[in-house]
Every structure is written in structure tokens, then in C-alpha cells.
Amino acid sequence: CLATLIIMLVGDTYTLINYVSFINYLCYGVTIIGLIVLRWKKPKIFRPIKVNLLIPIAYLAFWAFLLIFSLYSEPIVCGVGLIIILTGVPVFFLGVYWRNKPKCVNRLIESMTCWGQKLCFVVYPQCGSAEEE
Length: 133
Known about the structure:
- Helix 2 (about 15-40) packs across helix 4.
- By secondary structure, the protein is mainly α.
- It has one domain (about 1-120).
- It has helices at about 1-10, 15-40, 55-75, 75-85, 90-95, 105-120.
- The chain is extended and about 50 Å long.
- It comes from Oriolus oriolus.
- Keywords: Membrane, Transmembrane, Transmembrane helix.
- InterPro entries: AminoAcid_Transporter.
- GO terms for molecular function: L-amino acid transmembrane transporter activity; neutral L-amino acid transmembrane transporter activity.
């Protein structure tokens, strides 16, 4: 939320589109790299759709060109995009990686989740911990 508020203060739509497009290209490339790694390390797992590896490899070649061109032509925008992505790292460590959180932290996270669900009408709110059920 804090990163979104800061980005909203920029006010320039062109710059915001550049941030988002760089982040999207980066995420798409990492996804395709993950596909290739899984095809190599776990070739026997079930895949409902299986494509020839030449397609993702060709996509990665174009992806690398676009990413390198973006980094060369607008390094500040790409740097801000990377900073926006990195703002999620502390959230990951606090919410996912840290397993033995104190109960007060768990309650705070649950109440924030419930509040966010109610605010955005995303999911029917289920206030209360899953451990109680």
C-alpha cells in the first residue's frame, strides 16, 4: 500500500505505464525460466499442456533483448520497478517465511486480511483463525 501511494504521487501516467510494463516483462521471463527449469528437473510430472521447448527458449531470447533494451534506454524507470518488486520481500518474510510468529502478530495479520477483504469485496470475510475451526 505504501508503494502504491508513493507511485500515485508521481502523477505521470507514462512513467507509471513504464514501471508496470518493466515489472510485467520481468515476471513473464521469470515464469518462462521456471517452466524450463521444471521441464529439466522434473520431466515426469503431469502437465495438461506440453509445448516444444523451442517456443519458451525463443521467447526468452526476445525477452532478454527487451529487458536489456529497457535497462539501457531507461535505467531509472527500471531501477524504480525493481525497487517496487523488492518492497514485497519484507512482506514475504513477515507473512510467509516466518512460521513461528507470536499470536499477536497472527491476530494482526488476520485482522488486516479480514479488513482488506471487506474493503475490497474480494472474498467473503471469514474473521477468526483457521485453528479455531
